[in-house]
Amino acid sequence: MITAAFTTFRGGVRALAPKVAVVLGSGLSEVQAAFREQASVPFGEVPGFVPTSVHGHQGRMMVGRWADIPALLVLGRLHFYEGHTPEVLTGTIRVAADMGVKRVILTNAAGGIHPTLNPGSLMAIRGHFKLLTRDDWRHLAIGAGLATPYAPHLLATLSELHQGIYAALTGPSYETPAEIRALAVCGADAVGMSTALEAEAAAKLGLEVAAISCITNKAAGLGTTALDHAEVLVNAKLAVQQLAQCIGRLISLPV
Ligand code: HPA
Question: What distance in Å separates the CA atoms of residue 78 and residue 76, rounded to the nearest whole number?
Answer without folding.
Answer: 7
